[in-house]
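User: Hey, my collaborator sent me this sequence without any context and asked if I could get a structure. I don't really work with proteins. Can you help?
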Amino acid sequence: NGIADHNILLGAGSTEILDLVLQFTALKKGNFILAETTFDYWTAPYEKLGLKKITVPLTKDKKHDLSAMLKAIDSDTKMIYICNPNNPTGTICSREELISFIKEATKKVIVFVDEAYIDFTKEQSLSDLVIENKNLIITKTFSKMYGLAGARVGYAIAHSATIGELDTV
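Assistant: No problem. I've predicted the 3D structure and written it out in structure-token form, which is a compact way to encode the shape of the chain:
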């Protein structure tokens, strides 16, 4: 990923990273935003912790509606989750679209990008952006591209200060 080791936090698969980021987010009550439909197995427990789930419909071509997600941010929003490529639709937001979105959204909230399937595309990871952006967290896994689901190795990529905060959780 071309980043330093202090920008990485290992986990037992990317599911542990998903859980960790949501626990971190749940420390401050509020809401989180995600697409309807996306990978959301992890959302129910966090609604029980007091976080409200806000869903934003996909566009007609089944992509994340990044503009609508920006508009959905309010003073209680703590995080936006983007699965890119999206699971289960397989649609992709381009790097340029996401960079523009992240620049705006991270002024107010954490943007959590799940890149579990990025290695199956021609898109470049957003990992280089974490060096300057404390509100961007990326998760990756070895289970998809490298067929190591049984090894349960996933990791977060984030600004070193953010990694430190996640590590305390």
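In plain terms: Residues 3 and 57 are 34 Å apart (CA to CA). You can pass these tokens on to your collaborator as they are.
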